[in-house]
Amino acid sequence: MRMPLLALLTTPALAAPVDPVELEARWDAEVFPVVERYCFDCHGEGIREGELDLEDFPDIASMQADRERWKRIRGHIDQRLMPPVDEDQPSDEQRRLLVEWIDAAVFPVDPDNPDPGRVTIRRLNRIEYENTVHDLLGIRTPLRDHLPPDDSGYGFDHIGDVLTLSPAHLDRLLDTAGIALDAALHPEPMPYPRRQVAGKDLAGHGLVRDRARWLVTNGRVGIEHRFERDRRYRIRFRAGGTPGKRVAPLVELRLGGERIAEFPIERPLDAAGDYQVDYRPAKAGRQPVEIHFINDFHDPGLPAEEGRDRNLLVESLAIEGPLDGPRPAKPASHRRIYLDREADESDADYTRRVLKRFADRAFRRPCRDDELERYLALAASAREDGLDPIDCDAAIRLALETMLVSPAFLFREEPQPAPDDPGRIHRIDEHSLASRLSYFLWSTMPDAELRRLADEGRLRDELDAQVARMLASPKAEEFVRHFTGQWLQLRDLAQSFPSRRHFRDWQGALAGDMRRETEMLFAEMTAADLPVTTLLEADFTFVNERLARHYGIDGVEGRKFRRVEVEAPERRGLLGHGSFLLVTSYPTRTSPVLRGKYVLENLLDTAPPPPPPNVPQLEAPSRHGKGLSLREQMERHREDPSCAACHALMDPTGFGLEGFDGVGRRRTEENGRPINDRGQLAGGARFAGPAELRAILLRDHREEFLRSVASRMLTYAIGRGTDWYDRPAIDRIVRETRVADEGTRAMIRAVVDSAPFQYRRGDG
């Protein structure tokens, strides 16, 4: 049975009390001697290297008051960035002592009473806005490109703290709401069925010029169409011509081989005109509708003003009708908003019913009476008080457009009790939980089933079933695409442009194939509940013919992706994917630094500090064997003490992947020199090549990898960056994932169960 969240979460306490006496005693007896020996030469006794003097923190309270700085201090100690490599170094045991004391004193947490944190109210980003409007209105009109790009924080573009809303942004949102409603609603009577075919797509004779059909001799063009007997149809074509011997081209319009009209085409080629006829077919069924050019003329000896050549240009042919039958029904998008009227229902009652139903869905919670009254008043005012009064449907549309730019729609509201108690922790209501679930796994609004369960107060009782249902839905592709697209930087592939001079066989479409490969691997992990570590060690992948040929995999044909077994150990998992290898390369060469930094940041959640200023760029290795190799340049670069500590973390990983070139192909040499893919990690483990590097990561850094994925997934799920007080939540997510054989679905479920997902700290 899954463990419930502890009831103690509802108490005001944010953390267990810290015993300052014990911590002060440990500082004096154990911690300070290490700090004094290894840190004070640069950061004590008035010396402020990097603007840090540890004597500015005389007690634990002063340390807790500047936690941001102590995060950096802890990170530098834990990652072996300090002391500098050319200074005396503490032992592993001393480093562990410092980190454990900082955690206990500066970042105390209480696993029995975890702090869920506070999420800034989140505006829908443009992807969420488009998906939500699509599901709300039942349309598929592209909308996101009408909106400005969203800012990113913590690697994701739906973080509440960075999703601002400017007046210019609001103007664009209002315009976009109008575009969406235009696509969804059809207030006027629906037009009769109409089929229009461009001249270039007509069957028959003639030459294609742009989209038109050019007839230079007698001939015909047309289509087949299904007619109903004795119904009125309008047949229209658009044409122009050149007169010959001052006589216009003559056209016969035929239906089923029978001439039904004749037209002289007097409009010129560059200003074609419309010609039409209404007709009732005598028989039903599919019949050809044809335009026949019947009076071709050509005499090159005539003066130009007489017209030497009579030709015809047909731009389009359209058939409308039947014009005396019933008009088509309004589209489903219109009917889902404008409900059928009840008998004797007044305009006011109808407007209330339509707006209430729409608002309940748009606001992702029941609309309050006071909110609804404002929209009803707006609609009534538009109908009665305006200079140009409008009908009931138009007034409803105005209210709908206003709803689509209201805070209740644009922002993911999470009502909270007792706003006067900012420290109070409370469980979010079920409608807020439904929204968190749907935007986490679908990037859109809750569907009818989630809303029903939230209305009935039963969503928490059925979370297992609902998470399974949502992950089985095609909408879950949004989670795969947007989570991996940002966490694994797959979105950046669209801006990767390898040099054709250096990579002559590169095809631009390969970048999209590489993204699809990694997405399909993660989708398979989720669908089959494979271990999270499958991302690193999968012995299968997904390729089409183009990508398989790029990798040197035989036996794959066609554009369709298929699952294949990976035989070469160096190609297994993400570290062998072209997506990772391409996005961590420069246009002309590989980058061991970028590849090492990617592994540290994205897979181990260990971000190295930014490089110091004025670091010179490395030179690309010469094709003629002149100068230093890339590895030799980097090893010389690491001799600088200010660079050595960070590069000691990043470079070895990158060196181990040098057997892949800048576009993800295997190689054994570079410019005639053999590739050296050996390395030694900061902990001392030695390896050669991607397979041995992967084995070390899975053996020695498995815990860091699981915690990194859990932290990134939690950040994506709740829309804020994780912080020190989230450690108990991440501990629990990792623990529950391990119990379930490290399953990917198990981690998703653990994130949904976590305190930050289910609870929140109140605002002031």
Describe this structure in words.
- With 764 residues, this protein is α+β, with helices and mostly antiparallel strands.
- The chain folds into 5 domains: 89 residues, no CATH class; 127 residues, Sandwich (Jelly Rolls); 79 residues, no CATH class; 193 residues, no CATH class; 59 residues.
- Helix 16 packs across helix 17.
- The longest helix is centred in the first third of the chain and has 19 residues.
- It starts with 19 loop residues before the first helix and ends with a strand.
- 35% of the residues are buried.
- The N terminus is likely disordered.
List keywords for this structure.
764 residues, 40% helix, globular, Jelly Rolls, 28 helices, alpha+beta, five-stranded antiparallel sheet, disordered N terminus, 5 domains
* Low-confidence regions: 1-17
Count of individual helical segments: 28
What gross morphology would you assign?
globular
Please tally the β strands and state the result: 22
Structural domain tally: 5
Mean pLDDT: 90
Instruction: Tell me the radius of gyration.
Output: 34 Å
Q: DSSP strand (E) fraction?
A: 5-15%
Give the distance, in angstroms, between the N- and C-terminal Cα atoms. 37 Å
Major sheet size, sense and barrel closure:
7 strands, antiparallel
| Helical content (DSSP H or I, runs of 4+) | 40-55%
Class per helix and strand makeup = alpha+beta
